[in-house]
Please model this.
Amino acid sequence: MDTADSASDAIAALAALRDRSGCPDPNPLYQVLHQHGEVLELAADRQYSAVAVSYHACNQVLRDPVFQVVDAALMDRGSTRWRSSATLNAFMGSMLFSNGQDHSRVRRLFGQAFTPRRMAALEPAIAAITARHLDKLAELGADGAPVDFMLEFAFRVPSDVMGELVGLPEADREWYYPRALAIHGALELGGTGDPDVMRRADEATTELTGYFTDLVKERRAHPCDDLISSVIEAGEGLISEAELMANLVVLFNAGFVTTTHLLGNGLGQLFKEPQHLARLRAHPKLAPAYVEEFLRFEPSIHFVARWAAEEAEVAGVRVPKGGGVLVLLGAGNRDPRKYEHPDLFDPDRTAAQPLSFSGGAHYCLGAALTRIEAGIVVPMLLERFPAIAPAVPLAGRTHLALRGYPALPVTLA
Model:
C-alpha cells in the first residue's frame, strides 16, 4: 500500500470514530491507525492538529505540561456563547477543565478525600455496600428471572460508594443517576454540538447545582466526616462558591460512572472468555490483575483532548501553538509497540500501566478508589453467583467517552 493509500485509510478510520460508526468495535480502527504511525497529523482539520495513537505519544501528551486541557480562557478565544450553558460553565469551573495554579489549588483541596488512609478506611464500607446490593440482586433474579446488571448493581454500588465518600444521602442517589447520564452526554465526541443533548445536560446541571447548594448549607451548619465537609473546612478563602459547586457536580459524576462501566465491561469480557470467569472465581486473589487488564483492554474512556500552550512536537509531528491533540487512550492501550499481542485479553501481563486514568497533572483522583472497589466487588459477585450468565447476547456499545453497556441482562442461577 502506498503512502497516500495508508494516509487515506487512517483518515477514514478516524472519521469512523468521530461519527460513531466505529464505536461498536473501535479496535480494528485502532489497528489501522497504528499501521500509519505513532501520531496522525491533521493539517486541514479545524478542531485538532494531531491525533496521538501510540502508547508513547499518548503518554507524552498527557505528561508534558505544554499540553493543557481546554479551559475557560481557551473557550473564550473562539466565542463566549458557551457561557450561556449551565453544563459548560460547570465543566470549565471544575478542576477537570483548569490548568496551572487554579488546577493545583483545587485539586489539593479535593485530594484530601482520596488519601491512602481514607481509601483503606472505605474498604469495610465498600464490602458492606456490595453485600447489600448482592442481596437485592438475588431478590430480583429469583427463580431465574433476568436482571439488568448495569442498572441494578454496576450503577448502584459505585454510586453508593461515591455517595459515602462525598456525603450524598443514600435516599437521594436514585434521583441523581439520570441527571448524571444527561451530563455525560455532553462529553461525547460531538455532544456539545447537539442541541437536544445540551438541553438535557443543562437542565440536569441546573438541578444538581441547586441540590449541592442546599447540601453545602446543611454541611456548613452540621459538618460530617465526608468530602463536602472536609473541603468546606480546608477551603475557606481558597475556593469560591461557584468553583465548589462546579467541582461537586463534575467530581461526583466522574467519580462513579467510570467505575460503573469498569464493572460492566469487565463482566462482559468474562462472559466472552468463560475460562477466565472460571479461573477468577476459583482464585479471587487474582482480582487486582484482572482489574488492571479490564482497564487496559476495555477502558471506560477512550479519548481525551489537549491543547498546545506553545509550539511542540509529539513523536516527530509538529503541533503549532494553540493546536489541539486528540489523545486516543483506547488505541494507546492496544499499542503493539508497547504490548505483545495487544488484542489478547491476558491478566498475566506484568507492568501493564494502562492509560485509562489519564496521566500527568490530570491523573484521575479516584484511580486508587476504583481499583480497590473493583478488586473487592468482582470476587464477591462471582462467589455469590457462581452461575451468573448473560440472559441475552451482549448489547452493542455506542460511545467512546464513557464506554459501557446500556444494559446487561443476566441470570444468576
The two ends are 52 Å apart (CA to CA). The mean pLDDT is 92. DSSP finds 17 helices and ten strands in the chain. The chain has one domain: 3-411.
